């Protein structure tokens, strides 16, 4: 039943009091809904921060995850606060229902006795009127001198007076019973008002303190967020685009040389025994054909400057790649290693950060020939710094 409804047996004062308690309960419910939404928002925000640093460095990742942790911790605190508000609402709701039910029973009992008393009053008044009329009729009959009618009228007047006296006694008893019920109702009403007043004081205090604590939590969170954001900004200042690109190349590289061109193989130049031809013979054919790609005539060789180096080393069926010798620097120069690099092939050299290497050749393709501790091999030129 909704508070303040017309069908309620409560008095106007009790309806106003219950309506105010219902409004207070609705205010607490609204605050609970707000805390629930705020907790969910902070929890989702904290989880979203954890999804950002999947490809970041460890230092930046830890800073960003710290921001997410702070929001998740706030969500946990809001969850505890929400639990306390919910328990407070349920406790007040059960207590309010208990006293409302008691007041409803008392009010119904009082109304029932009131109706019964009013009916007995109406009966008493009616019996008194009948007794007065019977006595007046007896007086008129006595004056006429008819003995028989006089006795009959006298008996009727006596019966009516007895009925009036009996109705009066019933009316008095109902009045006493109604007053007793009214006293009990009044005591219960006072008790209920005191309980509702205490509930209202508790509600105002609890919600005030909860709102105060929540404002402090948000203020602390803003300060903490600003500190963590500053740490993230400081960490981002060390971000170097070139270093990230070099790191990607270092960890994802598949080789140091691109695949060579596929050479032409003349069908008629094969060995007569094609069925027993071996991969070694095929490779030999490719070596000879590779020589033709760089010029087979003497005139062509003289017109091309500089000439291609001898093709003494061919990998499989791929033709050797021509490298311009003028792009190399043959003078030796010491360099410092900036990043660690692990050799991917036999012709590469392992280097560590801080090592001093001697660069023998610098090639335009970015792979330099370096020497360290008597060992030579290719290293990435972007990993070195001239001393």
TrEMBL record:
General function of this protein = Involved in regulation of the actin cytoskeleton. May regulate WAS actin-bundling activity. Bridges the interaction between ABL1 and PTPN18 leading to ABL1 dephosphorylation. May play a role as a scaffold protein between PTPN12 and WAS and allow PTPN12 to dephosphorylate WAS. Has the potential to physically couple CD2 and CD2AP to WAS. Acts downstream of CD2 and CD2AP to recruit WAS to the T-cell:APC contact site so as to promote the actin polymerization required for synapse induction during T-cell activation. Down-regulates CD2-stimulated adhesion through the coupling of PTPN12 to CD2.
Report domain F-BAR positions: 65-244
Which residue windows does the record flag with biased composition (Basic and acidic residues)? 45-64, 149-158
Q: Which residues form the SH3 domain?
A: 330-387
Q: Where in the cell is it found?
A: Cell membrane; Cell projection, Lamellipodium; Cell projection, Uropodium; Cleavage furrow
Q: How is this protein named in the record?
A: Proline-serine-threonine phosphatase-interacting protein 1
Q: Where are the stretches annotated Disordered?
A: 45-66, 133-158
- Gene that encodes the chain: PSTPIP1
